[in-house]
Amino acid sequence: MTSVLKAIGSVVTSKGLDKPVYETLSSDKCLEKRKYRAAKWVSTTVQGMNHEEARSVGFQRLFQYITGNNKSEMKIDMTAPVSTKVEPGAGPNCESTFTVSFFIPPEHQENPPQPKNPNVFIEERPEFEAYVKTFGGFAKEDSWINEAQKLSEDLKEKTNEVRQDYWFTAGYNSPFQLFGRTNEIWFVKK
Q: Which one, of 104, 108, 111, 107, lies nearest residue 125 by Cα?
């Protein structure tokens, strides 16, 4: 019974879920610089105009993968965060490219089950450094864009070593968690 309650609690709060390993290089009240270890993620790419819609489509594909729709028919534990690489389109009415990803748990890092869905792939992210801004609440389309814009402007004043052609969003919580939510924007160091 205790393990069942723990499993339910981890899905609702994201506590106890595996997360990618990083080292905090520097920190101030609203910005953290992190170095993430190289790791494998399971990913899918969605073209669209709207972050939330693309993330939802991507999440469903990846959820099918971790619940057994892979060549090993293996169930894989949920991890946090759900990261989304945002590559903006060339203009205001152009589709953006969203790559939605789940971190692969440590026990599957060496040999993750291969996806059955041709739109799902295993991504090997090399070690990288990122500038990270954390914010709470239920992140919606406007919040992701506004927080990314604020962080981009803040970083332009501090450094010229940040990729501006894409950024990541990271959500750590189930939609069932009402309080204490964690969202992040990541800008990758060049």
A: 104
Instruction: Output the six-digit token pair for 26.
Output: 């520097």
Identity of the amino acid at 7: A
Count CB-CB contacts under 10 A for residue 119.
12
Q: Where are the domains of the chain?
A: 2-188
What pLDDT does residue 14 have? 56
Helix H or strand E encompassing 83: strand 82-87
118 preceded by a cis bond (ω within 30 of 0): no
Does CATH number 3.40.630.30 belong to domain 2-188?
Answer: no
Kindly report the pTM of this predicted structure. Answer: 0.90
Average pLDDT of the residues in 124-141: 95
pLDDT for the residue 166: 96
Rounded Cα gap, residues 148 and 135, in angstroms: 11
Place of tokens 């506590």: 15
The contacts found for 88-93 with CB under 8 angstroms, 24 or more apart, are 88/165, 88/166
- 3-class secondary structure, 55: helix
